Amino acid sequence: MAIQFREELKELSAYKPGKPIEDVKREYGLNEVIKLASNENPLGCSPKATEAIKKAADNLAIYPDGNCTLLKEALANKTGLKPSQILPSSGSDEMLDQLAKTFVNPGDEAIMADITFSRYIATTKMMGGKPVIVPLKEWTYDIDGMLEAITDKTRLIWLCNPNNPTGTMFTEDKLNDFLAKVPKNIIVVYDEAYNEYVTRDDFPKNSLDLLNDYSNLIVLRTFSKIYGLAALRVGYTMASEEIISNINKIRGPFNVNTLAQVAAVAALGDDDFIKKSYEVNKEGKNFLYKAFDEMGLEYAPSETNHIFVNVEKDANEIFVNLQKKGMIIRPITGTWIRVSIGTAEQNKKFIDLLKEVL
Asked: pTM for the full model?
């Protein structure tokens, strides 16, 4: 008899990460390759995090603290929440799967945008849930459209703000109005992986305060973006004690490794690094905006460390042609690509090469 796999797997495909630098070097015989495909911090990570990793490297034979005690305490001090309201994870990716396992039953509906973080739809389908797709409006979440999509089968709503891959955001007023209208039995997952890069004043900077008013709200953040710890895979989720304790029941016992924990604690204490990363990103964004304007290319206003831009030619073709010249970006849809904001030198190199391939 043939091996039987779960029915849900038939509609799923493996996640395709940004192409590694070494692969591109080998494929095209290049000595230097710049990767602006995965929204990584071009400055790396805090020196304090690197030092903490070195000190912890002598204890690799010991299992990690399965409770992430020190990391929870550091995050509690940073956010004003109780440690029991915080749950670290192996990146946000792991937590998205845990949330689906906790809340989504076969046949349940989960509302999400059509162009957003791809793991939302994959993890919903994994649990037999039905994705309900609400198209973006002008590359931005259609919050009102999401409210209209709610039915008695809706179990969960995925929100990404600012959004990946478009970089756009919706306002504090929009979020407050949305939460007030969503039935309290529906889980709202609010993913703000890029919140530290936001420059606009009308962004929902009060998201953690909203946990006091909405027991159905879950807020996700990560150390992979502005903190520059993408390789270590560490994110964290904040919600009511009831939600956190139930997610904890299905969490792997040692899901956040020791090096990730100590690096994250150290990174939290380096405000200067975060400030510098923010400023480099802001300057790089303005440089790329100006270059796109001069080239006559349409782009979506970004509040992240990446820009969604229309290159007016097939995105996959541009992706391949840039790779041949040592530049990795991300094709998204049609003629739209996503480019991460790099250092001043990397941004200039990207524009020079984009002009060549166009």
From this structure: 0.94
